[in-house]
What we know:
This protein is α+β, with helices and mostly antiparallel strands. The protein has two domains: 3-154, no CATH class; 204-313, CATH 2.40.50. 27% of the residues lie in helices and 28% in strands. The protein has helices spanning 18-26, 76-83, 111-123, 127-141, 156-169, 192-195, 250-254, 259-268, 307-313; strands spanning 3-4, 6-9, 14-17, 36-37, 46-50, 64-67, 101-106, 149-153, 176-180, 187-191, 196-198, 213-223, 229-233, 243-248, 275-285, 289-293, 300-303. A six-stranded antiparallel β-sheet has the order 1-6-5-4-2-3. Strand 9 (176-180) and strand 10 (187-191) form a beta hairpin. The longest helix is centred in the middle third of the chain and has 15 residues, at 127-141. It is elongated, with a radius of gyration of 20 Å. The chain starts with a strand and ends with a helix.
Amino acid sequence: MASVDYAWSIELGQELTASEAHEKWFMGILSDKTMFECRDENCHAQITCVNMDKQQYQMKMREHFKVYGQHSEKCEEVKRNKDVNRKYKTGAGTESPELEEEITFSMERLLSHKETQIDKHNDDFSEGQSVENKIVKKEAEGVKRSGSRKSHLYLVHTLVTKYLYGLKNGTLAKIIVYVSYPGSKKIYPTPLNKLFINVKNISLMSREASKTRIFFGKAKICKNKKGEYWVNFEETLSNDERKVCCVISQQIIDNTLSKNASKKLLDCFLYKDNTYCFAFGKLKETKDRIYINILTLDHLACTTEDIERLDDLC
Ligand SMILES: [Zn+2]
Protein backbone atom coordinates (compact mmCIF):
# COMPACT_ATOMS: atom_id res chain seq x y z
CA MET A 1 0.00 0.00 0.00
CA ALA A 2 1.37 3.29 -1.05
CA SER A 3 2.16 6.13 1.25
CA VAL A 4 1.57 9.82 0.47
CA ASP A 5 2.89 13.09 1.86
CA TYR A 6 -0.35 15.00 1.86
CA ALA A 7 -3.96 14.00 2.11
CA TRP A 8 -7.20 15.88 1.85
CA SER A 9 -8.94 16.00 5.22
CA ILE A 10 -12.66 15.49 4.68
CA GLU A 11 -13.38 16.67 8.22
CA LEU A 12 -11.52 19.96 7.75
CA GLY A 13 -11.75 20.59 4.03
CA GLN A 14 -8.02 21.18 3.85
CA GLU A 15 -4.80 19.51 2.73
CA LEU A 16 -2.65 18.26 5.60
CA THR A 17 0.53 16.37 6.29
CA ALA A 18 0.29 13.43 8.71
CA SER A 19 2.01 15.42 11.49
CA GLU A 20 -0.42 18.28 11.07
CA ALA A 21 -3.32 15.81 11.19
CA HIS A 22 -1.95 14.31 14.39
CA GLU A 23 -1.73 17.74 16.05
CA LYS A 24 -5.25 18.59 14.95
CA TRP A 25 -6.49 15.34 16.44
CA PHE A 26 -4.73 16.23 19.71
CA MET A 27 -6.36 19.66 19.67
CA GLY A 28 -9.77 18.05 19.20
CA ILE A 29 -10.22 19.43 15.66
CA LEU A 30 -10.09 16.03 13.90
CA SER A 31 -11.56 12.82 15.26
CA ASP A 32 -11.52 10.13 12.56
CA LYS A 33 -8.23 8.85 11.15
CA THR A 34 -10.02 7.28 8.15
CA MET A 35 -11.59 10.56 6.98
CA PHE A 36 -8.95 11.44 4.40
CA GLU A 37 -8.81 11.08 0.68
CA CYS A 38 -6.43 11.69 -2.19
CA ARG A 39 -5.71 15.39 -2.65
CA ASP A 40 -6.35 15.26 -6.39
CA GLU A 41 -9.66 16.99 -7.05
CA ASN A 42 -10.80 14.24 -9.41
CA CYS A 43 -9.87 11.40 -7.11
CA HIS A 44 -11.48 10.07 -3.96
CA ALA A 45 -9.10 7.27 -3.02
CA GLN A 46 -9.58 6.63 0.69
CA ILE A 47 -6.61 7.42 2.91
CA THR A 48 -6.05 6.65 6.58
CA CYS A 49 -3.73 8.61 8.83
CA VAL A 50 -2.09 5.74 10.70
CA ASN A 51 -1.37 6.66 14.35
CA MET A 52 -3.13 10.00 14.07
CA ASP A 53 -5.08 9.16 17.22
CA LYS A 54 -2.19 7.85 19.31
CA GLN A 55 -0.22 9.83 21.84
CA GLN A 56 3.39 10.27 20.87
CA TYR A 57 4.60 7.99 23.65
CA GLN A 58 2.27 5.21 22.48
CA MET A 59 3.49 5.22 18.89
CA LYS A 60 5.80 2.51 17.68
CA MET A 61 5.87 4.22 14.31
CA ARG A 62 5.40 7.86 13.40
CA GLU A 63 2.05 9.02 12.13
CA HIS A 64 1.76 8.64 8.36
CA PHE A 65 -0.78 8.35 5.56
CA LYS A 66 -1.66 5.09 3.93
CA VAL A 67 -3.73 4.88 0.77
CA TYR A 68 -6.34 2.14 0.98
CA GLY A 69 -8.65 3.13 -1.88
CA GLN A 70 -8.01 3.03 -5.62
CA HIS A 71 -6.83 6.23 -7.28
CA SER A 72 -8.98 7.37 -10.19
CA GLU A 73 -7.58 6.94 -13.69
CA LYS A 74 -7.02 10.66 -14.09
CA CYS A 75 -5.35 11.10 -10.70
CA GLU A 76 -2.34 13.43 -10.98
CA GLU A 77 -1.19 12.56 -7.49
CA VAL A 78 -0.15 9.05 -8.54
CA LYS A 79 2.10 10.41 -11.29
CA ARG A 80 3.51 13.10 -9.03
CA ASN A 81 4.40 10.62 -6.32
CA LYS A 82 6.50 8.66 -8.73
CA ASP A 83 8.62 11.72 -9.46
CA VAL A 84 9.13 12.86 -5.89
CA ASN A 85 12.51 11.92 -4.55
CA ARG A 86 11.77 9.43 -1.85
CA LYS A 87 14.35 7.77 0.23
CA TYR A 88 12.94 4.51 1.44
CA LYS A 89 14.78 3.18 4.41
CA THR A 90 16.01 -0.30 3.82
CA GLY A 91 16.09 -2.82 6.60
CA ALA A 92 13.70 -1.94 9.40
CA GLY A 93 10.41 -2.70 7.71
CA THR A 94 8.33 -1.26 10.52
CA GLU A 95 9.31 2.36 9.95
CA SER A 96 7.38 4.60 7.65
CA PRO A 97 9.31 5.70 4.58
CA GLU A 98 11.57 8.64 5.14
CA LEU A 99 10.36 11.59 3.14
CA GLU A 100 11.79 15.02 2.66
CA GLU A 101 9.99 17.26 5.07
CA GLU A 102 10.08 20.96 5.76
CA ILE A 103 8.91 21.69 9.28
CA THR A 104 7.78 25.08 10.48
CA PHE A 105 7.18 25.42 14.19
CA SER A 106 5.18 28.37 15.35
CA MET A 107 5.45 29.41 18.97
CA GLU A 108 2.64 31.91 18.62
CA ARG A 109 -0.85 30.81 19.42
CA LEU A 110 -2.78 30.02 16.28
CA LEU A 111 -6.39 30.46 17.39
CA SER A 112 -6.55 34.00 16.10
CA HIS A 113 -5.87 33.38 12.42
CA LYS A 114 -5.93 29.98 10.77
CA GLU A 115 -8.16 28.06 13.10
CA THR A 116 -10.96 30.59 13.13
CA GLN A 117 -11.09 30.49 9.35
CA ILE A 118 -11.32 26.73 9.44
CA ASP A 119 -14.20 26.91 11.90
CA LYS A 120 -16.11 29.13 9.51
CA HIS A 121 -15.72 26.57 6.74
CA ASN A 122 -17.04 23.86 8.97
CA ASP A 123 -20.26 25.68 9.75
CA ASP A 124 -21.77 25.15 6.35
CA PHE A 125 -20.09 21.98 5.41
CA SER A 126 -21.74 19.44 3.15
CA GLU A 127 -20.71 16.74 0.73
CA GLY A 128 -21.13 18.86 -2.41
CA GLN A 129 -19.18 21.79 -1.09
CA SER A 130 -16.37 19.56 -0.05
CA VAL A 131 -15.30 18.87 -3.63
CA GLU A 132 -15.78 22.47 -4.64
CA ASN A 133 -13.74 23.55 -1.68
CA LYS A 134 -11.03 21.09 -2.63
CA ILE A 135 -10.70 22.61 -6.10
CA VAL A 136 -10.76 26.20 -4.91
CA LYS A 137 -8.21 25.50 -2.20
CA LYS A 138 -5.95 23.75 -4.66
CA GLU A 139 -5.94 26.65 -7.07
CA ALA A 140 -5.22 29.05 -4.26
CA GLU A 141 -2.46 26.92 -2.83
CA GLY A 142 -0.61 26.83 -6.12
CA VAL A 143 2.70 25.09 -5.88
CA LYS A 144 2.89 23.57 -2.45
CA ARG A 145 4.27 20.52 -4.13
CA SER A 146 7.85 21.38 -4.97
CA GLY A 147 8.90 17.93 -3.83
CA SER A 148 9.25 18.18 -0.09
CA ARG A 149 6.41 18.00 2.33
CA LYS A 150 5.67 21.06 4.43
CA SER A 151 4.30 20.74 7.94
CA HIS A 152 3.23 23.64 10.07
CA LEU A 153 3.38 22.51 13.68
CA TYR A 154 2.49 23.94 17.08
CA LEU A 155 3.08 21.19 19.64
CA VAL A 156 6.48 20.26 21.03
CA HIS A 157 5.48 16.62 21.40
CA THR A 158 5.24 16.38 17.60
CA LEU A 159 8.80 17.72 17.34
CA VAL A 160 9.91 15.20 19.97
CA THR A 161 8.61 12.40 17.75
CA LYS A 162 10.81 13.78 14.96
CA TYR A 163 13.73 14.17 17.34
CA LEU A 164 13.50 10.54 18.48
CA TYR A 165 13.27 9.46 14.87
CA GLY A 166 16.33 11.53 13.94
CA LEU A 167 18.21 10.22 16.97
CA LYS A 168 17.51 6.60 16.02
CA ASN A 169 18.56 7.20 12.44
CA GLY A 170 21.48 9.52 13.08
CA THR A 171 19.90 12.28 10.99
CA LEU A 172 19.36 15.02 13.60
CA ALA A 173 21.67 17.52 11.91
CA LYS A 174 19.82 17.09 8.62
CA ILE A 175 16.34 17.78 9.96
CA ILE A 176 15.78 21.53 9.91
CA VAL A 177 12.96 23.22 11.77
CA TYR A 178 11.93 26.74 10.77
CA VAL A 179 11.04 28.31 14.10
CA SER A 180 8.90 31.37 14.37
CA TYR A 181 9.31 32.91 17.82
CA PRO A 182 6.61 34.91 19.60
CA GLY A 183 6.53 38.53 18.57
CA SER A 184 9.04 38.01 15.76
CA LYS A 185 8.25 38.07 12.07
CA LYS A 186 11.50 36.36 11.19
CA ILE A 187 11.83 32.63 10.85
CA TYR A 188 14.98 30.91 12.07
CA PRO A 189 16.12 27.64 10.50
CA THR A 190 17.56 25.40 13.20
CA PRO A 191 18.65 21.78 12.86
CA LEU A 192 17.24 19.41 15.48
CA ASN A 193 20.66 18.73 17.01
CA LYS A 194 20.91 22.47 17.83
CA LEU A 195 17.28 23.01 18.75
CA PHE A 196 17.27 20.26 21.39
CA ILE A 197 19.71 20.71 24.26
CA ASN A 198 20.29 18.20 27.03
CA VAL A 199 20.44 20.34 30.18
CA LYS A 200 23.50 18.56 31.52
CA ASN A 201 25.47 19.36 28.34
CA ILE A 202 25.18 23.10 28.54
CA SER A 203 26.70 25.79 30.70
CA LEU A 204 24.80 28.94 31.51
CA MET A 205 27.74 30.91 30.15
CA SER A 206 27.42 29.49 26.66
CA ARG A 207 25.74 31.40 23.87
CA GLU A 208 23.17 28.69 23.26
CA ALA A 209 21.96 28.99 26.86
CA SER A 210 20.63 32.47 26.19
CA LYS A 211 18.44 31.31 23.33
CA THR A 212 14.95 29.90 23.26
CA ARG A 213 15.57 26.19 22.91
CA ILE A 214 14.05 22.83 23.72
CA PHE A 215 15.84 21.94 26.94
CA PHE A 216 15.42 18.37 28.01
CA GLY A 217 16.55 15.81 30.53
CA LYS A 218 15.37 13.18 32.95
CA ALA A 219 12.88 14.73 35.31
CA LYS A 220 10.26 14.05 37.92
CA ILE A 221 6.93 15.84 37.59
CA CYS A 222 5.13 16.84 40.78
CA LYS A 223 1.95 18.73 41.48
CA ASN A 224 1.46 21.06 44.43
CA LYS A 225 -1.66 22.12 46.33
CA LYS A 226 -2.12 25.18 44.17
CA GLY A 227 -2.47 22.91 41.15
CA GLU A 228 0.91 23.95 39.74
CA TYR A 229 3.06 21.33 38.11
CA TRP A 230 6.77 21.31 38.88
CA VAL A 231 9.08 19.60 36.45
CA ASN A 232 12.22 18.89 38.48
CA PHE A 233 15.16 17.89 36.35
CA GLU A 234 17.50 15.32 37.80
CA GLU A 235 20.63 16.78 36.29
CA THR A 236 22.03 20.27 36.63
CA LEU A 237 23.64 22.41 33.95
CA SER A 238 27.31 21.75 33.52
CA ASN A 239 29.44 23.35 36.26
CA ASP A 240 26.37 24.51 38.12
CA GLU A 241 24.97 23.29 41.43
CA ARG A 242 21.55 24.85 41.11
CA LYS A 243 18.49 22.71 40.52
CA VAL A 244 16.84 23.01 37.10
CA CYS A 245 13.06 23.15 36.97
CA CYS A 246 10.09 24.25 34.94
CA VAL A 247 7.01 25.51 36.74
CA ILE A 248 3.62 25.20 35.08
CA SER A 249 1.27 27.69 36.62
CA GLN A 250 -2.45 28.00 35.98
CA GLN A 251 -1.70 30.88 33.61
CA ILE A 252 0.48 28.63 31.46
CA ILE A 253 -2.23 25.98 31.45
CA ASP A 254 -4.80 28.61 30.41
CA ASN A 255 -2.52 29.59 27.53
CA THR A 256 -2.68 26.08 26.07
CA LEU A 257 -4.45 25.28 22.81
CA SER A 258 -5.85 21.99 24.03
CA LYS A 259 -5.93 22.49 27.75
CA ASN A 260 -7.68 19.31 28.81
CA ALA A 261 -5.83 16.96 26.49
CA SER A 262 -2.48 18.47 27.50
CA LYS A 263 -3.24 18.27 31.21
CA LYS A 264 -4.41 14.70 30.90
CA LEU A 265 -1.22 13.82 29.06
CA LEU A 266 0.90 15.50 31.71
CA ASP A 267 -0.97 13.64 34.45
CA CYS A 268 0.12 10.34 32.85
CA PHE A 269 3.69 11.27 33.73
CA LEU A 270 3.11 12.59 37.26
CA TYR A 271 5.64 11.15 39.72
CA LYS A 272 6.69 8.62 37.09
CA ASP A 273 10.26 7.33 37.07
CA ASN A 274 12.44 7.40 33.97
CA THR A 275 10.57 10.25 32.36
CA TYR A 276 12.30 12.67 30.03
CA CYS A 277 10.83 16.14 29.79
CA PHE A 278 11.24 18.65 26.98
CA ALA A 279 10.55 22.31 27.59
CA PHE A 280 10.69 24.82 24.74
CA GLY A 281 11.57 28.04 26.46
CA LYS A 282 14.23 30.29 27.93
CA LEU A 283 16.55 29.76 30.86
CA LYS A 284 16.33 32.13 33.77
CA GLU A 285 18.59 32.00 36.80
CA THR A 286 17.87 32.87 40.40
CA LYS A 287 20.12 32.42 43.41
CA ASP A 288 18.97 28.85 44.05
CA ARG A 289 17.53 27.63 40.82
CA ILE A 290 17.62 27.69 37.04
CA TYR A 291 14.15 27.95 35.60
CA ILE A 292 13.10 26.96 32.10
CA ASN A 293 10.30 29.40 31.40
CA ILE A 294 7.68 28.28 28.93
CA LEU A 295 4.59 30.08 27.64
CA THR A 296 2.13 27.23 27.29
CA LEU A 297 1.77 23.50 27.87
CA ASP A 298 1.95 23.15 24.08
CA HIS A 299 5.66 23.71 24.60
CA LEU A 300 6.16 20.86 27.06
CA ALA A 301 6.46 17.18 26.17
CA CYS A 302 7.35 13.99 27.99
CA THR A 303 8.50 10.56 27.00
CA THR A 304 9.69 7.43 28.74
CA GLU A 305 11.94 6.45 25.83
CA ASP A 306 15.49 6.10 27.07
CA ILE A 307 16.98 8.98 25.13
CA GLU A 308 20.45 8.79 26.54
CA ARG A 309 20.71 5.14 25.67
CA LEU A 310 19.58 5.96 22.14
CA ASP A 311 22.12 8.75 22.04
CA ASP A 312 24.90 6.32 22.91
CA LEU A 313 23.85 4.07 20.07
CA CYS A 314 24.39 6.77 17.50
ZN1 LIG B 1 -5.63 9.89 -6.29
